[in-house]
From TrEMBL:
Domain of life from the UniProt record: Bacteria
Domain Thioredoxin positions: 42-199
InterPro entries: AhpC/TSA (IPR000866), PRX-like1 (IPR047262), Thioredoxin-like_sf (IPR036249), Thioredoxin_domain (IPR013766)
CDD domains: PRX_like1 (cd02969)
Pfam families for the chain: AhpC-TSA
Gene Ontology MF terms in the entry: antioxidant activity; oxidoreductase activity
Organism: Chryseobacterium lathyri
Full protein name: Thioredoxin family protein
């Protein structure tokens, strides 16, 4: 009788372990399915595709138009987002600082104006004039470019460097570590990345988490 009780106890414990293991595997499988179904954008080291988008002056702009550039600071941003607004002056400063050194800012508005009317084309023209944008401000009509890059927020930055005729991704993420107040910034991610490229040095921080508003997608 004693042996029977021990045998039953062992069976119950074993069944519990088996059930726990099976549940764990199911959870892992569910997580993997979720990850695999997510849209994948560029990673650091990938070749970024060129694009041809309409600028606020009505002209079509491509990365290939900038023959003398050494790379680009591609920033997905918009008009309405409070985070994007906080960064507008800093984006202008990045362009002024690095354009003549071969790394101009290329801003792209990825939002659908039917979802967020403040991000319409006419509103882009007015915002650029109001803030004194010194860089192209392009509209991602049809929302084909931002998913290719993997942008999820506004603003979301992709620093590219020209290598053998290709635009290679060197940094992805936020502009710096304090969107609220430029005076409280202690980590200048984009600035440090571009300075490193200019000096031919390794970039210490190649990827950070972009902080901002979600991109407004056509339904």
């Amino acid at each position: 009788m004693k042996n029977l009780k021990i045998l039953m106890a062992a069976f119950i414990v074993g069944f519990g372990v088996l059930s726990f293991t099976t549940t764990d595997h199911k959870a892992d499988a569910s997580q993997n399915t979720s990850v695999n179904s997510a849209v994948k954008g560029y990673e650091v080291g990938d070749e970024a595709a060129d694009f041809k988008l309409k600028n606020i002056d009505g002209k079509m702009v491509s990365l290939s138009d900038f023959k003398s550039s050494k790379g680009f600071i591609v920033i997905f941003t918009c008009n309405h987002c409070p985070y994007a607004k906080k960064y507008e002056d800093r984006i202008v400063e990045l362009d002024k600082k690095f354009k003549d050194q071969g790394y101009p800012v290329i801003a792209v508005n990825p939002n659908d104006p039917n979802v967020q009317p403040e991000d319409g084309y006419q509103q882009m023209i007015e915002r650029a004039k109001q803030k004194g944008f010194t860089f192209p401000y392009l509209v991602d009509e049809g929302q084909k470019i931002y998913p290719l890059y993997g942008a999820t927020k506004t603003p979301h930055v992709f620093v590219l460097q020209k290598e053998n005729g290709k635009n290679i991704v060197k940094y992805i993420g936020a502009i710096d570590n304090n969107y609220e107040n430029p005076d409280d910034v202690s980590e200048y991610y984009v600035q440090d990345a571009v300075n490193a490229l200019i000096k031919g040095e390794p970039i210490k921080m190649t990827k950070t988490v972009a902080i901002g508003c979600t991109i407004k997608v056509k339904k």
